[in-house]
Amino acid sequence: MQLLNILHIKQFDSAVNNPDFYSNTFKNHNNTHHKTITAPHKHDFYVTILFTEGTGKHEVDFHTYPIKPGVVFLLKPGQIHHWELSDDIDGYIFFHSKSFFDLNYTSRSVNDFPFFYSSQNPPLLQLKDEELNHISRYFIDINEEYYENRLLKRLKIISLIDILYTDLSRIYLSLQPEYTEPYRNTERVKQLEQLIDDHYKEVKMASAYAEMMHLSPKHLNRIVKSALNKTTSDLITERIILEARRMLIHSGGSLSDISLELGYEDYAYFSRVFKINTGHSPSQFIKIYK
């Protein structure tokens, strides 16, 4: 069952025909790709945006966030999002693949940064005026480097992104201290979330994921509880409900087909699970959202 087309970096105009990196001012990006980015979509790359002018709303997987100067959004591959933007919107945006960053480091990954390592963490932060002046310089330098033909260009861009993500991580963790603990448990949390992503349609028992990770269910639950203040079962259910919402709004499939796709042969049971976790039946959710 098809949800939405997944956008790829090569679909965007590139001054250097680079298949794994793209940068632009947001105004130029919006003017060129307005139809693509204002309709709900997802992508297979990481997206980082700084807004410096204008206002609007940004919906990411059914959570709506305000757009205003100084807001930074950091999106992972696979998230469904779209915008409502004022006419005076501007800022900076860049995309990159996982390998664009990871191939340059042997001991860490782009997913080690707190805003990327867990889907539980909010995809944005609001900069103060003095932080905006500092952080915006990185975006400007990255964008300028992208459009210039200089020696060691790729290395310079990666180095700037690494420093930018490090400084953004400092601000992010200072604003949201509750996410400091999952940062220490990043490998286990990332492993569990990836396993759930891969198997949630057919595997719904917490004990099965503990077995995949060679841990006892109690030990895994302690890790998740310490990191996210949730249970393993909570993460499984949240992933199922997120995909259910995506399918109900974007797939065009029947309610019974969506239930089967998510691993529930009994639609009535799926409907009860959905209502317990959202407060609405699937059909009610569709009407309310649309």
What topology emerges from the helices and strands here?
Elements: E1 6-7, E2 21-25, H1 26-38, E3 42-43, E4 46-53, E5 56-60, E6 63-67, E7 71-75, E8 81-85, E9 90-96, H2 98-102, H3 114-117, E10 124-126, H4 129-147, H5 153-175, H6 180-184, H7 186-199, H8 206-212, H9 217-228, H10 232-250, H11 255-261, H12 267-278, H13 282-289
Parallel strand pairs: 1-3
Antiparallel strand pairs: 2-9, 4-7, 4-9, 5-6, 5-8, 7-10
Helix pairs in contact: 4-5, 10-13
Write up what this structure looks like.
This protein is α+β, with helices and mostly antiparallel strands and 290 residues long. It folds into 2 domains: 6-180, Regulatory protein AraC (Jelly Rolls, Sandwich), CATH 2.60.120; 185-289, Arc Repressor Mutant, subunit A (Orthogonal Bundle), CATH 1.10.10. Helix content is 51%, strand content 16%. The chain is built from 13 helices and 10 strands. It has helices at residues 26-38, 98-102, 114-117, 129-147, 153-175, 180-184, 186-199, 206-212, 217-228, 232-250, 255-261, 267-278, 282-289, and strands spanning 6-7, 21-25, 42-43, 46-53, 56-60, 63-67, 71-75, 81-85, 90-96, 124-126. Helix 4 (129-147) packs antiparallel against helix 5 (153-175) and helix 10 (232-250) crosses helix 13 (282-289). The two termini are 20 Å apart. The model has no long low-confidence stretch (mean pLDDT 89).
